[in-house]
């Protein structure tokens, strides 16, 4: 089943998510933000793969189509209620924090420093 997907992403994880979605044959539009030179650029990856994108904050007026689902990966902005409603609440987030013990973007680093045997990520649905 081919879906219309909005990817709100950033960093290498956004690039990886986009690669998976492209390989699966989905129609994808990306919302992202500029990266400093030392962080992998989802903008550059979109241009390489000829995928349309925007660096504006996601909003209902900026959506290029009615999405079947919205995927957020390392996206820095809060996604507003009316955007969530645009896809009938079919929206989820993958985040690098390991809740509840390791919060924030450096959570994997701290888990390794503290000798944790397992690491991972947090997956959750987004609602208002």
Largest sheet: 6 strands, mixed
Q: Enumerate the strands of the largest sheet in spatial order, edge to edge or round the barrel.
A: 3-2-1-4-5-6
CATH superfamily: Formyl transferase, N-terminal domain
What is the first-to-last residue Cα distance?
28 Å
The top level CATH class name: Alpha Beta
Low-confidence segments, given as residue ranges, are none
Mean pLDDT comes to 90
Structural class: alpha/beta
SSE string, helices as H and strands as E: EHEHEEHEHE
Tally of domains: 1
* Bulk shape: globular
Strand content: 15-25%
Q: Radius of gyration in whole Å, from Cα?
A: 15 Å
In CATH terms, what is the fold-level topology?
Rossmann fold
Instruction: Estimate percent helicity.
Output: 25-40%
Total strands: the figure is 6
CATH architecture: 3-Layer(aba) Sandwich
Topology diagram in text:
Layout: E1 4-9, H1 11-23, E2 27-31, H2 42-49, E3 53-54, E4 69-73, H3 81-86, E5 91-95, H4 107-113, E6 122-125
Could you please describe the fold and organization of this structure?
The chain is an alpha/beta fold and 128 residues long. The chain has a single domain, classed as Rossmann fold, CATH 3.40.50.170. It is 27% helix and 21% strand.
Entry summary:
This protein has 128 residues and is α/β, with parallel strands linked by helices.
Characteristic terms for this protein:
single chain; alpha/beta; 4 helices; Rossmann fold; 6 strands; 128 residues
């Amino acid at each position: 089943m081919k879906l219309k997907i909005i990817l709100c992403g950033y960093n290498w994880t956004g690039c990886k998510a986009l690669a998976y979605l492209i390989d699966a044959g989905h129609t994808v539009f990306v919302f992202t933000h500029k990266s400093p030179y030392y962080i992998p650029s989802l903008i550059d990856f979109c241009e390489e793969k000829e995928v349309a994108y925007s660096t504006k904050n996601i909003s209902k007026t900026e959506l290029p189509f009615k999405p079947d689902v919205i995927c957020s990966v390392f996206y820095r902005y809060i996604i507003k209620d009316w955007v969530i409603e645009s896809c009938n609440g079919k929206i989820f987030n993958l985040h690098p924090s390991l809740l509840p013990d390791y919060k924030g973007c450096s959570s994997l680093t701290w888990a390794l420093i503290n000798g944790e045997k397992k690491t991972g990520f947090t997956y959750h649905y987004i609602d208002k």
